[in-house]
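Table S2 (text version). Query chain:
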Amino acid sequence: MLGNARINHACIALLHLSERWESGEFVKTKDVSRGNSLPYKYLTRILLQLRSSGLVTSLRGPGGGYRLARHPREITLWDVVRAVESADVREIKQGRAVPRQAQGVLTSIWDEASSKVKETLEKYTFEELQRVAREMYYI
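Corresponding structure-token output:
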């Protein structure tokens, strides 16, 4: 679930967009794709998920593309996980393919794990990730 390609690609795309936050420009999907070696069609689907969750906005046309819907300091890693993985998390919590007697026990464990993951990922904003990425680039 966590750390899968979809979440990583979404985070990379949001980091790319956060670097352009101050300019207010819309960034084309192909530029995000090429600049980060992400598969274009896959990235398009991810950006649609991020848009429907309210993390990015889009504009059609020649000057169009995507940009963050909020300041990078207001978007956390947890926001991305919720946007991109919400269906998977619901499926785990519903206990698919789990015998009824184990379902209650597993649900409480998934809830505990989710709460710890959420607590950790809420600490990290894209503003902070952008700062760390810049520092790492120059090392």
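Notes on Table S2: The chain has one domain: 5-138. The beta strands are 56-59, 65-68.
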